[in-house]
Amino acid sequence: MRRPLVAGNWKMNGTREGVVALIEGIKAGLGDTNADVLVCPPAIFIDSVGSLLEGSQVKLGAQNICQEAESGAYTGELSAAMLTEFGCSYAIIGHSERRHVYGEADKLVAERVAAAVSGNVTPIFCIGELLEEREKGTTEQVIAQQLDAVLKLDNGVALLKETVLAYEPVWAIGTGKTASPEQAQAVHAFIRSHLAKQDEALAVGIKIIYGGSVNAANAENLLGMPDIDGGLIGGASLKVNDFLAICKAAG
Ligand code: 13P
């Protein structure tokens, strides 16, 4: 069985005070859950959020990771070694904002996935099509190409066995316009069928979470689909009650 995962991607949001209130609220309200729950704060808050989370079941992740595992001349980057020292067990990689605002290409994203796995950080490897690609009918092609960037590495299948995938249709991110449960399920099923061509166990075992305008009201229907194993939550992860409702829907 694939254990559900609900991950909050705080993006570039938060203040010293706000972060404390958010974490204390999540810890107080979470209760028993069958889902893994994760928060990914901006890097500047990783240390303080890590301290606030001590002893709690909520896990800590980063919003990106360097393709080099240790240290070196990579201005603005954080390595797997640094992230693990500060308690991060996950890193979001290839988020559409990194791909489309900062120009991170498939090859770099794949290298970041490899560096994360070799540094004992679980990648949350994001894939998803633009609106124009969906309208042109090329969604599956785009998704396949993004997956293939990792699959064609020497140890691609092994890397993906250590990875969580996040399907985030770019047109549904921050727009309030979510994919319907059926639309999301269709892409998740396609992802499994594409991976099955390489390795059946990978296709069955890999966790694929959905992201894009997930909220307290739509979470149950989206996360109830058979190939959707949780959510990557943006805006709603900044509101305690909404995030807790989504965690409840998952677990
Ligand atoms: P929203 O939930 O705000 O649409 O953001 C989704 C997302 O990009 C999570 O990584």
Q: How would you portray this structure in words?
A:
The protein has 251 residues and is of the alpha/beta class. It has a single domain (5-250), classed as Aldolase class I (TIM Barrel), CATH 3.20.20. It contains twelve helices and eight strands. It has an eight-stranded parallel barrel with strand order 1-2-3-4-5-6-7-8, surrounded by five helices. Helix 3 links the parallel strand 3 (59-62) and strand 4 (88-93). The longest helix is centred in the last third of the chain and has 16 residues, at 181-196. The chain is globular and about 45 Å long. The chain binds 1,3-dihydroxyacetonephosphate (13P). 1,3-dihydroxyacetonephosphate is lined by residues 9, 95, 168, 173-174, 211-214, 232-236.
Structure keywords:
alpha/beta, globular, binds 1,3-dihydroxyacetonephosphate, about 250 residues, TIM Barrel, 8-stranded parallel beta barrel
Structure described in brief:
The protein has helices at residues 16-29, 46-53, 80-85, 96-100, 106-118, 131-136, 139-151, 156-161, 181-196, 200-205, 219-223, 240-250; strands spanning 5-9, 36-40, 59-62, 88-93, 122-127, 164-167, 207-211, 230-233.
What's the helix and strand layout?
Blueprint (H helix, E strand, L loop, with lengths): L4 E5 L6 H14 L6 E5 L5 H8 L5 E4 L17 H6 L2 E6 L2 H5 L5 H13 L3 E6 L3 H6 L2 H13 L4 H6 L2 E4 L13 H16 L3 H6 L1 E5 L7 H5 L6 E4 L6 H11 L1
Parallel strand pairs: 1-2, 1-8, 2-3, 3-4, 4-5, 5-6, 6-7, 7-8
The structure holds 1,3-dihydroxyacetonephosphate.
